[in-house]
Amino acid sequence: MSDSEAAPSIASLRSRFESLAAASSSSAPPRLARQPSAVSSARTVSAAEVASSPPVEIAGSPDVSSHQPASSLPQPSLRPPPSDQSRPTPHASPSRKRRPPPPPVPGRSTPPSAPPDTDDERPAASVKALRNMFSASSSVPSIRSTSSTTSIPISAPSRSRTSSTAGSIPSSEGDGDTPRIDAPPRSVTGNRPAPLPPARAASPARLSPGRTTKPVLANSSRPSSAISRTPSTASLDPTRSPSGSSVGATPVPPAAPVSTSPAAITPTPTPPPTAPPQLPARRPTLPALDLPSPPTMPAGPPPLPGNRPFVAAHHAMTISASSEGAGAAPPPRLPERPRAATVSQTEAPQASTPPRLPVRQATIVAGSPHGREAAPRVDGYQPPPPPVRQLTISASAAGPSASPRRRHGPLVDGSRGDDASSEDDDDDAPMAGYSATAQKALDEYPDATTANRRPPAYAPHVALESHTLITAFAVHGRIACVGHHHVRVYDTMMSEQPLLTVDLRETGLDFRVKDPRVTAMCFRPAARTEDEGRYVWCGTKDGHLWELDVRTGHVTATKQSIHSSTVTYIFRHAHFVLTLEETGKLHVFDCASAGAGDMAGEPASDDDAAGCGPRLIRTIRTSDRLTFAKMIRGRLWTSTAPPTRSTTSAATSRGPTVRIYDPLADVVPPPLVTTTSEWAGAVTAGTVMPLAPERVYLAHEGGFVSVWDAYDATCVQVLKIGSSDIVSLEGVGERLWAGNRKGVVHVYDIAERPWVTTNLWTTDPDQPVYALYADPWSLEFAGKYTAWSCSRERLIAWDGFLAVDWIDHQMILRQPDYCTFRPIRVLVVTWNIDSAKPTDLGGSMENATFLEQCLSSVDSPDIVVFGFQEVISLTDKKLTAKTLLFGNKGKDGTAAADRVSASYRQWLEKLTYAVRLAYPPGCPYIKVHSDCLVGLFSAVFVKGHEREALKDLGITTVKRGIGGIYGNKGAIVARLVMDDTSLCFINVHLAAGQRQKAARNADLAAILEDKAILEPGNESASYVHGGDGSGILDHEVVVLNGDLNYRIDQRRDNIVASVAAGDLGFLLEHDQLRKEMRLNHAFRLRAFAEAPIAFAPTYKYDVGTDTYDSSDKRRAPAWCDRVLFRCAGGLGSVDGGDGVQRVRATSYRRYETTVSDHKPVSAGLVVDIKRVDEQKRRIVRREVGLEWDAREKELLHTLGDAYAALM
């Protein structure tokens, strides 16, 4: 057979062999040693890796120790696919003897190869060269399991005429001529694989963390057309430098290294593969180098197999050679892989099935001229760490920072990862300022710091008790009527017992409902002045109307079912009466000439000089389901409930709809429809000020009040004046009265900006004030100005002029006329001791002399007050549970001798001993108060010679922790009266945290709220604001000290720098406590004062040092420990209201102890206490009463004229 005839067969043979090797490598796990010339078709193999690989085991080689005869291995059956270029080839004999590869030639370079040319110009390979090549190929070990005997058919791809050869084949003569093979393929059989070494178990091919190349699985089922479409990127170029050499797919003897050159490549673009495997995105590897001679295989078991298939390595090496070329810099090291995906090369192989490889990004680029190309390399690029695996959120959906939050430290015993050693949970970031809406609400909130809490009751007090629910009432001068199933009539100037009672069955009406009752009442106008206040109209649930003569108790007129539903309102204006039913029908009656006639206009008798009764002149349809309706200045104001408030946008939130009707006009116009300018709750009541009728005020649920222009009905302003729903509103003289659902009546001076709460009191605890009514007829018929409040079962009369408020204020101003004053010195010490013990006050001079310095800061004080916080650790869970369950007592109710009581006892003994040592023996001090509340401890000492001046001693506690049931936060309140001046000392510990300002404000409001927490005192002259000493603000002098926990709204670095620079003024501007006292009109400490601060913040220090907190939390320093004081007289007042300063601060300083994270603070005060001369006081009181009588007459005349214009 000639060379020309054999060339196609040899080319086909070589192509079939490559397919055979690729299929064999993918069909079974490899158990071969590494081949020095193995090249992957999907990745680049560095020359250094190839050089370090052990030699290939070749059947028949004298260096290979075979434990199994070659003849015992089954032969693979090679069947080529049908092709017009292939023809059958006889099977090689299994016993055919193969010659060993020629020895390497020392110093010989890569043999030159012919440059690429067309198929017609390619030289045919010699028979001898083909025989040598076939002999070398047949010695490749079989990549299949030794237990398998089934032949593996391999489909060889057809080669393109323009594609380059897979590699160069050295001649057996070693002459360096490497022929080009361009012949029709033919089948090759008879390649017996070498036996597997029995010494090592089968192991999967795994990736090594240190390797720069990764395996690519060969797909045995891949069609041959897909392989043929991927051309080589390197040809057999004899001029290629050694650095660019590559290894062919066919095993090459070590004696003849192979070299290729990228310059010899003539690529031809081909379509991309139809089914490319999922290949990883690889970086370029080192360029191929000259392959050295393989070292001699050492004795013993062979090394681990390579982490890539043996034959399917050709394309990657050629791509590397063509893309990078010689002399390219090595890429950076690949990141470490988890052990779940890789196995170190030094680890022992495992016999288990290799794990499934992760899905890699494909490296095939569509439209690439070479089919596949390596990813571009960026110099200096360091690969990022592997991403955190997520199950449901992809990286693209989660954004650039989608990795989960990592813990900074391990969790031990299930505890929190953060520092839980302190009770504070601070945030270094300053608290954000108020929003515009919140700031506006604070600016407009009424100031109640000087409100008088004494009810403005008459003497004698008028309170009409009803044994049933009051559903309607009406008053006129001294006559009052209340209705439910009965109508009761009272003369308030005579008795609180009813003058008469009228049952509904006496009216002669037919009631259709099961539970008939009166639902609306009003006194109608009379034609004669002497009949004014004589006839009262009553509306019922059935829609009936009937008239009652309160002087005789007779039913003078009735109208059966004049309304189709419940009569809800009856109004009076001028000589008209208007009745409104639940469904919105409004009847208008003219009573200008009405006498004792029926409601149809007929006279009651021929003797009635008044003529006919009230006449129905018109009926008007209004809105149904009204929440409010009232006649104001001749027009009917009505309202319906507002829509649901928008929680997303303030712009879309609307208040209630207000409709204004003019039912008394000659031609009734359409109603004027409007809404509030801001969101507010449903309208519940409305009124007009008699002395300022140009404004209309509507009350809303949620504590809102809207202000309207009475002429054009436009909303001028919406105010937030309370936290509870306002259910009743009435203009009484110069003041606006408002009643809420808690039974409290607030009186506002609306001439001030913001409004000022002048009076507040409770009518009926926990019962809403359903209605407030100022009776203008009382000015004429009772000689006084009466305002009424109606609750469920009580109708109470109040002094509309608030005479008690005016008289009390005048008595305070005239105190020098009946009182004598003397000064006393008060020392107040506050300290959060952080559960330190008295024995800890040692070591440094500051610690040892702390109590001595405190007691000597005020010269011979008359009263010494100690207020400590955190006497016990508030983070001790066991102790907390014990005190929460049993308080400070044992289970049997007796004092427990545990460490809680021991801590208080030790400190009390320490303070008593220090007071005894600090002052002369001839001036002993006595303890008048001491109490504890979990971490709080208070002790009050008074000079012994002042014991006779003390009265009304009392002490109590207020809990604020865990919703008011635990005392870790709260207050101890101590009260005493010295001479005739009441003093109250409060030791508080408020909520901690930078952002807990609202919680601290709420704690203060709960402590200072208007409920009785102390026993009432016996000396009424010793208390102020009409109180009896049961409330904190009833006392003339109030001193508040403790750990208030108010912080500085600045960052820690700014605070520390300002302290170091001595710029305390800047920090005081951002002090939360002072800002609240200055800006928040609802703040309960607004009436308190504080001495100037000239010391650094007292919180928070590292214990044992003078260094601010250096822990991980790095809490911002703050003036948490404060002493504030108040004297009844006014806003931030230290005088008694008469312009004389009654309380003066003489010192305000801190001490440098280091046993706690807080620094102690003391304040020295001088208080002027009074002694009342009762005889002089009675004289002054009589003089003030006479002054009020003259003022009252003036007010009666002024209000009479104002109501005449309104009515």
Describe the strand arrangement of the main beta sheet, using strand numbers.
Answer: 31-32-30-29-39-38
Topology, number of strands: 39
- The structure class reads alpha+beta
Mean pLDDT over the residues: 73
The dominant shape is: flat
What does the radius of gyration come to? 52 Å
For this entry, what is the oligomeric state of its chains? Answer: single chain
Q: Count of DSSP helices?
A: 18
Helix content: 10-25%
Uncertain stretches of 5 or more adjacent residues: 1-6, 27-97, 105-122, 138-269, 285-295, 304-328, 338-352, 361-379, 388-423, 603-611, 889-897
End-to-end distance, in Å? 137 Å
**Percentage of residues in strands:** 15-25%
Jot down its keywords.
alpha+beta; six-stranded mixed beta sheet; flat; five-stranded mixed beta sheet; 1207 residues; single chain; disordered N terminus
Structural overview:
It is a single chain. The protein is flat, with a radius of gyration of 52 Å. Helix 1 runs parallel beside helix 3 (127-138), helix 9 (803-813) runs antiparallel to helix 18 (1174-1206) and helix 11 crosses helix 13. The N terminus is likely disordered. It has 18 helices and 39 strands. It has 1207 residues and is an alpha+beta fold. The strands form 9 sheets. A 6-stranded mixed β-sheet has the order 31-32-30-29-39-38. It has a 5-stranded mixed β-sheet with strand order 33-34-35-36-37, with helices on both faces.
Task: Describe, in short, the structure shown.
With 1207 residues, this protein is an alpha+beta fold. 16% of the residues lie in helices and 22% in strands.
